[in-house]
Amino acid sequence: MANTEPQLALVDIQEPVLNTFWPPAPGWWLLAVLVVLFMAYGFRFFWQKWQKALPLRQAKAELRLINRPEQSAQLNELLKRLVHCYSPRHPVLSAPVQQWQDFLQQQLPLQSLPDLQSLLYKSAPTEGDFSAYLQFATQWLNKVCVKQLERL
Q: Which residues cross the membrane (predicted)?
């Protein structure tokens, strides 16, 4: 005997499966790849900039250790090494002291610079000359940036 009631012949209605967040649509994959590439490029850019500024940061740190007049030659060597890092073939690196002094004076024209000839080659440099040279070096290192050093 056949079932004559139509309600008994119906099967339960199956709801469709809900869309979940995974796996994302291809547009989201493309966006994710672009974000990763952009972040990698940005990291590389800032890492190279950080590495270029390393000699300048090290020079500033080493400058803090120089505090006695007997270290005048070390201060001069520090400035020359910094110029050498960014401009290895700069003619002032092998020039006489007077040309080196003129070069430094051009970097900060408003700041006075003591006579380096007497400061570097005296057996006992004066405290005033050394402090003026140290102040000059401190101001120059705080003012100068990597781009300026590369253009020297």
A: 28-47
Beta strands in 58-148, from DSSP E residues, in sequence order = none
Note whether 92 and 79 are same-domain residues: yes
The pTM assigned to this predicted structure is 0.77
Q: Could you read off the pLDDT of 37-88 as tens digits, one per residue?
A: 999 999 999 999 999 999 999 999 999 999 999 999 999 999 999 999 999 9
Query: For residue 64, how many other CB atoms are within 10 A of its CB?
Result: 8
Q: What is each CA distance from 128 to 43, 96, 104, 132, 144, in whole angstroms?
A: 45, 23, 18, 6, 24
Question: Domain check: are 68 and 143 in the same one?
Answer: yes
Structural domain span for residue 34: 23-52
CA 95 – CA 76 distance, rounded (Å): 13
Tell me the CA distances in angstroms from 27 to 32, 95, 118, 121, one per residue in order.
9, 62, 71, 70
